[in-house]
Protein 1
Amino acid sequence: MQETKKSELPVLAIDLGGTKILTAIISNKGQVKAKERCLTLADEGPEVVINRILSAIDRLLSQGNINLSQLDSISIGAAGAIDFDRGLVTSSPHLPGWHDIPLRDIVKEKYRVNIFLINEANAAALGEHHLGAGQGVNNLILLTVGTGIGGGIIINGRLYSGVSGSAGEIGHMTIDVNGPRCDCGKTGCLEALVSGTAVAKEAIKRIRQGERSSLTEIVEGKIENITAEEVSIAAQGGDSLASEVILKAATYLGVGLANAVNIFNPEMIIISGGMAKMGDLLLNPARQVVKERAFQLSAQAVRIVPAQLGDDAGVLGAAVFAFQQEVD
Amino acid sequence: MQETKKSELPVLAIDLGGTKILTAIISNKGQVKAKERCLTLADEGPEVVINRILSAIDRLLSQGNINLSQLDSISIGAAGAIDFDRGLVTSSPHLPGWHDIPLRDIVKEKYRVNIFLINEANAAALGEHHLGAGQGVNNLILLTVGTGIGGGIIINGRLYSGVSGSAGEIGHMTIDVNGPRCDCGKTGCLEALVSGTAVAKEAIKRIRQGERSSLTEIVEGKIENITAEEVSIAAQGGDSLASEVILKAATYLGVGLANAVNIFNPEMIIISGGMAKMGDLLLNPARQVVKERAFQLSAQAVRIVPAQLGDDAGVLGAAVFAFQQEVD
């Protein structure tokens, strides 16, 4: 009986976000064989979150009746800045307390298989490029627009990750230097103006200032519970405050995308993440701004499209990353 | 007697800027064999400028006693947006009237040798990468900070020019969406805040508003004659208005560089162009802002350095580009 080749084994992929941890077994054909999700509970700090990751891995292995020798590797996409060489999550606006956490070695210590650690949005870019909206597109930018804004860059068909693995932080591009403070500490980042958090904050602020909106009823008067999702629902129902808030975010998104278009002259920009679910409500005004602000040739060359893989982009991309590496 | 191989012949390289046209014969070892410069006279429109380019080529060939069969090619770096496939200068804030000008074919028609046309700042990036400050550096960004701001991107040791040859317009990255209008038509571009033109404008504005400065004497009362060069001289002489104007530009430059650092995580950023002659007066405050605004890992990884090739970067880079191409 022939042994299965190492490279034909599946990857256990993890998407560590600020809100949820998604864990999946992914075949070398990019199929999701098993999947589970749990809350990150990021506010409880790194130790709790790490234990939740390890428990999620254990559950998935035991549910699928898989032992470690049947895995190619474990690959983690994490919502933070990654020191690729040392396998650290160096910092994260969405994972409080995470500073130089050696996540790769912690997971390696327990499971003794190959471990890969990349940035979550970089993983999503790889996922969409290999299996989603960006298939066959050699030069593309992906933005995950959710709680925060992450980015991934595909150049000449490969993930571009920079000299220390930190490239792609397009969400922390300053577009309004006198603008609101961002969770990263700077002012006027794309993230501070366009993320789901920014949209919710803006709606809450305006309602607290006395403006009327159907959002107040949607959240039964608990204004602080408004999220970008409710703003989207209210806008689709014709609420003018909600529509204005989304238009404002979409306009800023367009300014950021125009910058990316001028800098990269990419074939495609893919928008993923929670806010991408708004579809053309968000993307059409942004496309219009790109048309107005970017150089004509580059503006004409780019397609701005929603992601296709939904929440699975991160785990699929983390698996793609693992399969691409030279494994001993 | 053996014939000289085509690839060993020199390139006639041209740097078409908004102010001057530089023409040079460059050997395949990157040596400048002959060189001449003339004014662009951009305000007189494309026809005049094109005739000046053709005359400059003729003069250089005749002075060097070179005939066309002794050239590998003619390679032009132009200060504008380039449609690489069609060999057009599609537009340029610094060359009034240039819209879809088929510069490649115009030059080809007259000289019947291989003609290459790329963006001037892209050429400068290639030049500095192969022969200047960026030798041996695989991932770098170059910014030419002069009358305008151009950019060039080297990724994995190669010029990255995007899907239609227009990548690298870092000067037209919006960093202050409510900021001053740029020559490109948008607001708050890096160019509108940091270029030599912006620096001169700011100094002139403040003096016209009644502020005192040694600049007034330097230009003998002709305030409108102030250029960035005089502002630099005045600042070095201790003039406080001039120092403040440069510090403001350097701070904005730092915001733009921090964006580039977060996006590209490059090993090096090279600053070339007229403003680069200010040296640490401009670069030190910019470096400080990068340290404060960019992600730590990326900020630590990048060296921000002045260019080494001076005014020759464009012609040298245009020649490097020609030598890199597959020539029939």
Protein 2
Amino acid sequence: MSAPRPRAAILSVGSELLLGDLTDTNATWMSVRLRERGVAVLHHLAVGDDLDAIVAAVRWLAGRVDLVVVGGGLGPTSDDLTREALAAATGRPLEHREELEEAILARFVAAGRPMAPRNRRQARVPTGATAWPPAGTAPAFAVPLDVDGPGGAREVQLVALPGVPWEARELWDDAVGSRLDALGATGATVTRTVRVVGRGESDVAAVVEPLLADDPEVTLAFLARRRAVHVRLTATGADVAGARARTQPAVDAVVAALGAAVVGVDEDDLEAVVLRRLAARGETLATAESATAGAIAARLAEVPGASRVLVGGVVVYADAAKARLAGLEPDLVAREGAVSAPVTAALARAARDRTGADWGLAVTGVAGPGPVVAPDGTELPPGTAHWAVCGPDGEVVTEGRRLTGDRPAVRERLGSAALDLLRRVLDGAVGSA
Amino acid sequence: MSAPRPRAAILSVGSELLLGDLTDTNATWMSVRLRERGVAVLHHLAVGDDLDAIVAAVRWLAGRVDLVVVGGGLGPTSDDLTREALAAATGRPLEHREELEEAILARFVAAGRPMAPRNRRQARVPTGATAWPPAGTAPAFAVPLDVDGPGGAREVQLVALPGVPWEARELWDDAVGSRLDALGATGATVTRTVRVVGRGESDVAAVVEPLLADDPEVTLAFLARRRAVHVRLTATGADVAGARARTQPAVDAVVAALGAAVVGVDEDDLEAVVLRRLAARGETLATAESATAGAIAARLAEVPGASRVLVGGVVVYADAAKARLAGLEPDLVAREGAVSAPVTAALARAARDRTGADWGLAVTGVAGPGPVVAPDGTELPPGTAHWAVCGPDGEVVTEGRRLTGDRPAVRERLGSAALDLLRRVLDGAVGSA
């Protein structure tokens, strides 16, 4: 890139952030969007619903960047002070815009609700501001601020967006995108994600870091999530295609080095990959879940179109359900214990047989917080878990180990372990499917 | 409170925040802790791994507050610059502390790993700083900064904590708590939460706001979550018991005004309330889930001890599963449609009968993104949903309406609607249980 990278800051207005009632996920989303346009985000700053604090924050940030995106404080109440603060910071008194009031009124009419008098406040913007009609009831606007600096006077772009996430996202391209065009943000940054299951972050880093030690164009980062470790590869280019092309050799090298531990690249998560492979084979899946109690089926059903593959399943939380819903011999559970490889294998077979699905997937485990006593008197600590897959030929593959983390983490990791076993069986990397 | 409230800011150091790779949940957690001690948090600020940016941020914040908690940038690599930045900001060069190096080494010995030479960097702190041995490998430290202001010179406390959440939490009381004691933060703030299901935020606000209009001691806030609307009532007192006592009349008034729409107070969410009422009656529950595909059972199983009540259930995602796992007549589904009140009622009855549980809970719905065509040819848009409860006497109560939001929101709201119907039936507010 030839032009210098534009610099931006995100200012979030709202006392609920400072009280700890709300986490600022807007700043995260906006940062990703700005980064994709090649913009360097230098600061996130949160301030309360206080006029002086907002003005001071705008002035400090404007001295350091080219663009300040202000989120929140555009509602209809007296606590919503972003309009007044940007008017004060820029020395441009608020003016009422008739066309904005009409656009706000139209939103109320469409929702079949009367517009309260206080919503007229939302039609006010600093004099001369560029404004966009609302997605909800708050219009967005942009206004320039002249800043004196060591290199002489320069113009900083201020953009005000609503704090409600979907409203901000809907207005983003118009309000922020247009400012980025004006700032000459023509570069593009692309981040590719290689998703890895079944290996720890440091183990993955030890394999991947040496591969990219000599590539100054690709930035490497690792993110350890409950469901997977993400290897993130970032490159910048003149446009999206160029940036993407720069990442490709690195993506290929990482995928080759990690082999079967790679679940997918970019948006390809474990659920999507498993559903797509089964759909391609024209095969269906059913579940039998003890410790996860339906969470695996629910994860699969998060994916639109899951109904082509997911038939359903049984939640066999209590031992009574293992007998009544999965038809397990009470003797088997009494002899082997509810958390055991033989019971898990029997559940995987039952999931398949009872639904007529081609594949059955089952889990048992000790989610915690306390241990469970096995029939032989040994204590199974929290995290003890088994998972099993039954294939179209009736053959069952079982795995098990002790998973780390608290109760929610164990339940989520158990779901990932089971889905990953199914993925590896489908790939022929495990068992005889 | 007689003394003025101490003011604080949270400075988070780490480029991953500005790249959008990570959301700053540390700032949320710290804000809650500070608020409980009666501290006013005025700013959250995030900066990248850049020495000048960290120094500028510390100086700007120190001009506005009494305490700056700096999170992150204490690792062993050259990107970890918080130590250097606080040394520069305070004019106190870094010094090596032998006792900190020994504490770091002890952590490595305990983990059975060798200590790398670069970890010695973590034993360096600004001259004269108070330091605490690490929870992970990064010690925390505190150092004062003299600031000139309109009222003359004053001392601002800077505290550096690791960015890893569990490490920061473990060091919090020692490092930040001790500074708050020194700042005279003796007050306490308590927030109570009244959880409301089945009514919208503005509807709830219209009922609650007039109740508290004349109470200057209790601050009111509303949070609309997918699972519930939270009415938050906050008061400050000399200690936790005093602050809590001030909130109680407001909590009582809100609960009385909202009646059966109140699910619970404070930590009492819908899942916990339903499980507790069933446990008190010695009764059990089973589910039959179509659109939610196991998510309701999984939500219940998130609560430790759920196994006393939750037997299990069936996930009847495909129509074939509705027949095979729940025993529904294929005719019924063909005639009424899979998303219909009669099918949902039959599923609730099947959940109970097939498991031997006392209660059955069932849902059907169109999660989206596309519509579903009913047997009579009408299009059921996304959000169309039914839920039903079958009680110990076999009687079934069914409700239905169109839920708003995208696919994940519809699935979550459907689960809440069904659990809330069960709660109201258990309370005798609906049906004849």
